[in-house]
Amino acid sequence: MSEVKKVATRQSYGEALVELGKEHENLVVLDADLAAATQTGKFRAVFPDRHIDCGIAECNMIGIAAGIATTGKVPFASTFAMFAAGRAFEQVRNSVGYPHLNVKIGATHAGISVGEDGATHQCNEDIALMRTIPGMTVINPSDDVEAKAAVRAAYEMDGPVYLRFGRLAVPVINDKPEYKFEVGKGVTLRDGRDVAIVATGLCVNSALEAADLLKAEGVDARVINIHTIKPIDAELIAKAAKECGRIVTVEEHSVIGGLGSAVCDVLCERQPAPVKKIGVQDVFGESGPAVKLLEKYRLDGKGVYEQVMEFVK
Amino acid sequence: MNKTELQKMAVEVRKGIVTGVHAAKAGHPGGSLSAADVFTYLYFEEMNIDPENPKDPGRDRFVLSKGHTAPGLYSVLAHRGYFPVEDLKTLRHVGSHLQGHPCIQHTPGIDMSSGSLGQGISAAVGMALSAKLSGDTYRVYTLLGDGEIQEGQVWEAAMFAGHRKLDNLCVIVDNNGLQIDGPVDQVCSPYPIDKKFEAFNFHVVSVDDGNDFDQLKAAFDEAKATKGMPTAIVMKTLKGKGVSYMENQVGWHGKAPNDEEYAIAMADLEKAGEALCQK
Predict the structure, then answer these.
(1) Which residues contact A14 (CB under 8 A, 6 or more apart)?
(2) Is pTM beyond 0.90 here?
(3) Is there a single domain that holds both residue A203 and residue A162?
(4) How far apart are CA A133 and CA A136, in angstroms?
(5) Is residue A263 part of a domain?
């Protein structure tokens, strides 16, 4: 088997900021003493004057970003998901969401794939928190190609955007000439009629691997990549439920309030269907190598495959 | 404006506060009245603004970090010509552009939504930083309550502003001494306020009477002349100033006058206005 190219989406974030920074003078980047980890250090190396380190003060950083946005510049405020969506939730809601300011939040180290740092830093709640804020766009890219496209799309649109990135290097799955990113549009990666697996972030790759294993068992699974959780592609999801009858959602996030809940919100109103929510159950994470944790929490290809089999049999 | 004209305007601003809160049957008169003079000074004397062009990129900015005193800000904006004074009677009514706390999307002249305490100062710091990044010359003012500075975010913002030497930023603390649960020094003392801002690398101007226009002018002139560091103006004021029964009363932090109390308040202010006309 040939070696699959792997890139952490936080690295894609840092690289995309540099590219966009070259094109747009009004782009500024903020960080809270995590420039190496969030990869905004790449931007700082090229544009030191447009990189603002706020120190370990995330609430203030979000407020500063809001103030900057009122003056017409486009700030990307960067820190770990735990602190961007968790600690600074109310600043994001009241200083960014309510005034609907053009602030982009680059949240890295989301989910249990943070790994060794353990539960305090593994944010499995950010999608739930961010999608409740009116007017907030929430994007969770699946790989390097999509992450870079998402950063560009976030810059190009007006209004607040929450971008979710991971620490772990993940396979590049969208490196195709026909790849196109559109905010709010899901992507059908594989057609199928027996069950539709709707996945987001690094779990999209797990879903594809699971679909291969399911095929061998005679289960024909559709795989849909929902990179934009809000606004969600309700059309595509309702169509999948209608044609496949059963839906499985897969996310590296709590099963409470994330993609699974967003999909159920769509289906209960438009196309009721049985749904299996795969994700982090109602528990905190723990320390360990990211890959081992994904295995333990059954978010890798094998874990998803097994859970889909239990659901469809 | 000369001092008497500013004083007369401040009386009109206070009438607008009382009228708005009375019509809303809710709101925060005490801290609006303590800050009525600084609102008046900023919008009629100090700031480079144009009500005809409220989004002018080169304008000075004001962020009401103590956002609950919106009735004071709305009143001064109305009297300065951003919207009709009549609108003040719609304060907090369903469908009104005058929300309970300032909203950048609703009201002309509002530079930032605020009201959740401790957040406005960070936005003001962001505006000041943005001006520095692009070489713009506008100044940024933000008004905080003395209770508000109990919020930790205020000091995150202060540390950053001092570190970045944002001399285009002027932080004003309305030290009226009272918060909802009682006197600030009994609830959780913020004192000494001046030494705290000094420790965060601010130039500090202490104002003995923040309801006196001469002292306000001296303080803002000093702030403007200060280079290489942000300025904090810590001004002692009288909560409820101008309405006899509200002055220095904790109970008038967040309560609306009834019809009878409204009449007394307006009579107090009429009298103050007439006294100024005798001058």
Answers:
(1) A38, A39, A40, A41, A42, A43
(2) yes
(3) no
(4) 6
(5) yes
Q: How far is A23 from chain B (nearest CA, A)?
A: 17
Residues A160 and A233 both lie in one domain: no
Tell me, yes or no, whether A91 and A159 share the same domain: yes
Q: Mean pLDDT across the stretch B198-223?
A: 98
**Which residue in B77, B248, B78, B223 sits closest to B139, CA to CA?**
B223
**Catalytic sites of A, residue numbers:** 58
Interface contact A32, partner B, CB < 8 A: no
Q: Which of A168, A203, A201, A167 is nearest to A307 (CA)?
A: A203
Give residue B279's pLDDT. 75
SS3 A116: coil
Average pLDDT over residues B13-31: 97
Contacts (Cβ under 8 Å, ≥6 apart) of A295: A302, A303
Could you give the ipTM of this predicted complex?
0.97
Residue B42 gets which letter from DSSP?
A: I
Report the domain count for chain A.
Answer: 2
Domains, chain B, ordered by start: 3-277 (3.40.50.970)
| φ/ψ of residue B238, rounded to 5 | -110, 120
Q: Based on the fold, state whether residues A209 and A119 are members of the same structural domain.
A: no
Which is it for strands A137-139 and A228-230: parallel, antiparallel or unpaired?
antiparallel
- B interface mutation test: which of A52, A60, A62 has the most B CBs within 10 A? A60
